[in-house]
Specification:
Layout lengths: L1 H21 L6 H9 L3 H25 L1 H13 L1 H72 L3 H15 L7 H48 L21 H6 L11 H12 L3 H19 L10 H24 L6 H23 L5 H20 L5 H32 L6 E2 L2 H10 L5 H5 L4 E2 L5 H20 L6 H28 L6 H16 L1 H12 L13 H28 L17 H16 L5 H24 L8 H19 L16 H11 L3 H7 L12 H18 L7 H25 L1
Antiparallel strand pairs: 1-2
Helix pairs in contact: 1-3, 5-6, 6-7, 7-9, 7-11, 7-13, 9-10, 11-12, 11-13, 12-14, 13-14, 14-17, 14-18, 17-18, 18-21, 19-21, 21-22, 21-23, 22-24, 23-24, 24-25, 27-28
Family: Belongs to the SEC15 family.
Function: Component of the exocyst complex involved in the docking of exocytic vesicles with fusion sites on the plasma membrane.
Organism: Canis lupus dingo (dingo)
């Protein structure tokens, strides 16, 4: 057993020795520790000594073998001794440096680290204190940053609220800091900046509503025209976001009306100025600027009267202005008040009425005047919806009504002129029942005898009768259109229509008829037809009365109802036409008489009337044949007038001063012409005369000619002055004039007359008769 342990120990010692021999010196510690830890330490040391001696012997052998080399090595070592010394010193230095580096440098670093730690902890305490202070200042800075951001984004009202919180809540907590003092000093500037920027927004708002007043007014008038908004005017232009309108109401609106204007700038600015204690300044500025805009809006363009669009734009701007003001009145507290609105409206009303009076006076188109009236009514109704008094506008419309009537009269004057100029002044022919009914449908005419006649047949009047009648009805309709929506009673409408129609009849139509009647080239046929036409138009006046009654529902028997003057108008036109017929006939007679070529010195006795007179009588016969449709008195008067004029003209022809001499033969020819005239009168060219009434037109000529041809001076002179004398119509002056012409002829044409007893006796008789005639004339004058 002991032997076995000895072997193990020897093996272990051998292993350790090998390990010592083969192991690096730096790593021998663990090996040596195992030796010292063992119990056979002494024995190991013995083996170690033995091993050392063995190695020494090997070394000695080796050295002996390498002695020369060793000597050489020593020699070399001696050579490098100095270098080795140097190396030794350097090695020492390196060793010291290493020790310092190993011990002292870490220690210095430690000291430095500790100092840094100290500073770090000091910084931490400072940071902690700073953080605490910053946490106190941070809300202030955040509020200030928020304020600047709100001002940059033009959210001025929130910025003002932020500024209030900053000034009263946050800044007092950090008032001991310098930056706080800077902020406090900057607050008044910020307030002024907010005021200035909000005022700039207000100016932009004012400019915007000035530009959009036209559209605002157009929308408001359109809504009133469509029957919207009644009962809730202030909701016209409020945005949905303000919550003033229900969705149901908005559905009724013209699209886009509620979004035309954003009033938030004026609300914000008003609140900002109120908060800043400058509300009065803001109110004064707003009202001043709006007054200026009102004056601009109320200034009409110079060419406004040219088109309806000019008036429409003018009204739209005014309505837009007052819609905005009304909305401001109802959505702000005291920015504008009713007195201010009323003052502006009174100014606007007076300027608007003055502008309309001026510009409407230039209008000559009744359609434009009617459209203007409808536009004014819509304008007034729109503003009335907003609570503005508009009675003066409706009063002014009555003035425009008179102008409208004048423009209508001018228009219808042209219509009547065209009708009268284009008429053929011939009875209307109809060839079928359809044509007959068409004419009767246009004009109220009833004639049983005409209805019984077979086709073709003719109406007694020409085409201008139904045309004029229908145009009178159109005129009445046009008058009625203007009276619509003027809030007039039926009686007022009826009175207006009747007065305007009377002007049409008594002035416009009357003048048109008079112009036609007085036309130079008017013929007798046309004049006759005019008389017939005006007679039928006169009869139609009662139907016009009924027509007006039906559309106004005012009975003619109503007190103060104006009567139509159509009867008077057509009577006057007819009388003028009659007078023109008389004048025209006389002119025609004068034209024929100008063809008369009497040989006053002829001695031959003729056997027939003069050619010119035969033609004249033929003309009169044909003319009076046309008078069959005229009223009896008109035809009779025309015929009597023509015969009287013919007799007077023949008498003047016989007695004119240029005829100094005439013979009995010429007087006989003249007598034949007068007989032709008397024959025409007896033939009854116009029915209705009693016996020889028409012949009385030639009685003066007949008695004068009978007196001279029969040479019945004794009877004339004896019966002169008696009521039943034969030559009652012969004036002594006329007889003396004609006698003088025959006396001169007797003297000059028969040079031997004094030698013939008969001639001498005749000449003496002429002288005696002439003397007696002069006596009659003298006694008559005395």
């Amino acid at each position: 057993m002991a032997e076995a342990e000895s072997l193990e120990t020897a093996a272990e010692h051998e292993r350790i020795l090998r390990e010592i021999e083969s192991t690096d010196t730096a790593c021998i510690g663990p090996t040596l520790r195992s030796v010292y830890d063992g119990e056979e330490h002494g024995r190991f040391m013995e083996k170690l000594e033995t091993r050392i001696r063995n190695h020494d012997r090997e070394i000695e052998k080796m050295c002996n073998f390498h002695y020369q080399g060793f000597v050489d090595s020593i020699t070399e070592l001696l050579k490098v001794r100095g270098e080795a010394q140097k190396l030794k010193v350097r090695s020492f230095l390196f060793t010291v440096t290493g020790i310092i580096q190993f011990f002292f440098f870490p220690l210095a670093k430690l000291v430095i680290a500790m100092e840094e730690l100290k500073q770090c902890r000091l910084q931490q305490r400072n940071i902690s204190a700073t953080v605490d202070k910053l946490m106190l200042c941070l809300p202030v800075l955040e509020m200030y940053s928020k304020l600047r951001d709100q001002m940059k984004t033009k959210r001025h009202y929130p910025a003002l609220k932020t500024l209030e919180h900053l000034e009263h809540t946050y800044l007092p907590q950090v008032s001991h800091y310098r930056f706080c003092k800077v902020m406090v000093d900057n607050i008044p500037k910020l307030r002024e900046e907010i005021k200035d920027v909000s005022m700039s927004d207000l100016k932009d708002f004012l400019e915007s509503i000035r530009k959009h007043s036209d559209k605002i007014g157009e929308t408001a008038m359109k809504q009133v025209g469509l029957g919207f908004m009644i009962g809730w005017p202030v909701t016209l232009l409020v945005s949905v976001k303000h919550g003033f309108l229900s969705a149901k109401c908005l559905d009724c609106f013209v699209p886009g009306a509620q979004d035309l204007v954003d009033f938030s700038p004026v609300y914000r600015c008003l609140h900002i100025y109120s908060v800043l204690g400058a509300r009065e300044t803001f109110e004064n500025y707003y009202r001043k600027q709006r007054r200026k805009q009102a004056r601009l809006v109320l200034q009409p363009p110079s060419n406004m009267h040219e088109t309806l669009d000019g008036y429409r734009k003018y009204f739209n701007q005014i309505v837009g202005f007052f819609v905005v003001e009304d909305h401001i009145l109802h959505t702000t507290q005291g920015l504008v008040n009713r007195a201010y609105i009323d003052e502006l409206w009174e100014m606007a009303l007076s300027k608007t009425i003055a502008a309309l009076r001026t510009h409407s006076s230039y209008c000559s188109d009744p359609n434009l005047v009617l459209d203007l009236k409808n536009l004014i009514v819509l304008f007034a109704d729109t503003l009335q919806v907003y609570g503005f008094p508009v009675n003066q506008l409706f009063d002014m419309l009555l003035e425009i009504r008179d102008q409208y009537s004048e423009t209508l009269l001018k228009k219808w004057a042209g219509i009547f002129r065209n009708i009268l100029d284009s008429d053929n002044y011939s009875p209307i022919p109809v060839t079928s029942e359809e044509m007959y009914k068409k004419v009767v449908g246009q004009f109220p005419f009833q004639d049983t005898e005409l209805e019984k006649q077979p086709f073709p047949k003719k109406f007694p009047f020409s085409e201008f009768v139904p045309k004029v009648y229908n145009q009178i009805k159109e005129f009445i309709y046009a008058c009625l259109k203007f009276s619509e929506d003027l809030h007039l009673s039926s009686t007022e409408v009826d009175d207006m229509i009747r007065k305007s129609t009377n002007l049409l009849l008594t002035r416009t139509l009357s003048n048109s008829l008079q112009n036609v009647i007085k036309r130079k080239n008017i013929g007798l046929t046309e004049l006759v037809q005019i008389i017939i036409n005006t007679t039928h138009l006169e009869k139609s006046c009662k139907y016009l009365e009924e027509f007006i009654t039906n559309i106004t529902n005012v009975l003619p028997e109503t007190v103060h109802t104006t009567k139509l003057y159509g009867t008077t108008t057509f009577k006057d036109a007819r009388h003028a036409a009659e007078e023109e017929i008389y004048t025209n006939l006389n002119q025609k007679i004068d034209q024929f008489l100008q063809l008369a070529d009497y040989d006053w010195m002829t001695g031959d006795l003729g056997n027939k009337a003069s050619d010119y007179l035969i033609d004249l009588i033929a003309f009169l016969r044909s003319t009076f044949a046309v008078f069959t449709h005229l009223p009896g008195k008109v035809a009779q008067t025309a015929c009597m007038s023509a015969c009287k004029h013919l007799a007077t003209s023949l008498m003047q022809l016989l007695l004119e001063a240029e005829v100094r001499q005439l013979t009995l033969g010429a007087l006989q020819q003249f007598n034949l012409d007068v007989r032709e005239c008397e024959q025409f009168a007896r033939s009854g060219p116009v029915p209705g005369f009693q016996e020889d009434t028409l012949q009385l037109a030639f009685i003066d000529l007949r008695q004068l000619l009978d007196l001279f041809i029969q040479w019945d001076w004794s009877t004339y002179l004896a019966d002169y002055g008696q009521p039943n004398c034969k030559y009652l119509r012969v004036n002594p002056v006329t007889a003396l004039t004609l006698l003088e012409k025959m006396k001169d002829t007797s003297r000059k044409n028969n040079m031997f007359a004094q030698f013939r007893k008969n001639e001498r006796d005749k000449q003496k008789l002429i002288d005696t008769v002439a003397k007696q005639l002069r006596g009659l004339i003298s006694s008559h004058h005395s």
